[in-house]
Every structure is written in C-alpha cells, then in structure tokens.
Amino acid sequence: MSWTDDRVELLKKMWGEGQSASQIAKELGGVTRNAVIGKVHRLGLSNRNQGTAAKPAAKEKAAPVAKAAPSKPAAAPQPEKKPEPKTEAAVPVSADRPANVTHLRKQIVPAGQPLPPQPSANEISPEALAKVNEIEKSAKKLGLMELTERTCKWPIGDPATPDFWFCGLPSQQGKPYCEAHVGVAFQPMSSRRDRRR
DNA sequence: CCCTGATTCGC
DNA sequence: GCGAATCAGG
User: Fold this and answer.
1) Burial code of A84-97, b = ≥16 C-beta within 10 A, e = fewer?
2) Spatial contact of A185 and A169, defined as CB atoms under 8 Å apart
3) What burial class does residue A157 get, using C-beta atoms within 10 Å of its C-beta: 0-12 exposed, 13-18 middle, 19+ buried?
C-alpha cells in the first residue's frame, strides 16, 4: 500500500480528530500504526509544535553515531491548545448527599448477593459512582461468553433475571474491570483494619 | 499486559 | 520516502 493522496488526507483528518495511530492504521488498512506514525512525522504534523527548529534529541542510547553536539536546548514551552472534549459533562448526581451514598449504590446494583469486591460503600467518591452510572449506559452488555481477557467483567443487573449482563467496556491493564468500575471496585481500604480471626 | 506516540536506520 | 524495530511513557 502506498500513501495515495486520499489516504494521506484521511490520515490527516483522523489525526486531526485526535484518533490514535492504531485506529487510523486499522481504518486505512494495509498499514501498521508504525507506518502511520512515521508518515505523520514525515508530514510534520506530529505535535502542534512547529517552528522550533532545534530538536532536543531526547535519548542517545545504543546509537554509535558521532554527531555534533547541539548548541543549546532552546526549547521555549509554548502554550498549546488541546482539543480534548472530556466526556465528563454534568452528571445529575446529587450534590447534596452527605451520607446516603448507599442508596445510590443500590440503584446501580440492585442485586444484593454475591457481588464483586463491592466496597462498603462508605467512602466512594460520588464522582466515581456518577461515572459508573454514566458508563453503564454505554456498556456493551456482554454475555458471560463474550467476555475476554480485557473486557470489563463488572456485572450489571440481577443475575436472577434476564436483565443481567456484563459491562464489557475495555478493561484497564490487568484489572478485571474498566476504568470506572475499577474506581468503585477496589479503592476503599480505609477503615478496614483487622479482621478478628 | 494493554496501550500510546517518538525515534532510528536499513531499505 | 517508507516502516519495522525499538524506545519511552501511561
């Protein structure tokens, strides 16, 4: 595959939209994300850092290249704009809920049985709960079979009813849950002192 | 372990 | 110019 004009255009477009190199590569087809990144650099649209000629030459490890030493770092940090629409708009979370967080949790997980590492719902950030509510709306609702090594395995709904599924969103490294669920899953550990055994 | 982009260098 | 291999972070 070669970098035809339209392919380059798509590349520019997607890169401009903040798409990742791997996504772009997948979309284009026939190229790897490395190819995309390489092209991006060649096109000179890697970062919005343009103008500063001198490149700080980040690392010099196994490079037996004898090059003239750079005169000076000369890297004026320019305030850059980051078009990153945080999908964290206002969530209808009760701002005035001092201690009734437990009820909120109940809404999320109606079931009351063999729940995952459900914290004691004591000191969970209301934000985390709101987040969970949010993401559950966009959950992929995977069945038990669809779960893979890196899909969120957070159960949603009542296992005793057909309205039961798993979050299914991309889980974070290693963890069994996605970002949001990790937040409410294991985070507490505050007043859990001894276990009297 | 999964991902991200950045850089190098043989082709 | 191209991109795999590698590096460097998250």
Assistant:
1) eeeeeeeeeeeeee
2) no
3) middle
Positions on chain C within 7 A of a protein C-beta = 1-8, 10
pLDDT at A138: 67
Structural domain span for residue A141: 126-196
Q: Which residue is nearest to nucleotide C3 (CA to C1')?
A: A35
- Residue A75 belongs to some domain of the structure: no
Q: Which nucleotides of B are covered by protein (CB under 7 A)?
A: 1-9
Structural domains counted in chain A: 2
The confidence score (pLDDT) of residue A80 equals: 40
CB-to-strand C under 7 Å, chain A 87-146 = none
- Whether residue A117 lies inside any domain: the answer is no
- pLDDT (tens digit, 9 = 90+) per residue, A14-29? 898 788 898 899 888 8
Predicted pLDDT at A4: 93
User: According to the model, what pLDDT value does residue A131 have?
Assistant: 74
How long is the CA A38 to C1' B7 vector, in angstroms?
Answer: 9
Using 70 as the pLDDT threshold, list the residues of chain A that sit under it: 47-127, 137-138, 140, 146, 149, 174, 186-197
Would A151 be classed as within a structural domain?
Answer: yes
Q: Nearest 5 degrees, angle CA A112-CA A181-CA A134?
A: 95
Residue A55 falls within a domain, yes or no?
A: no
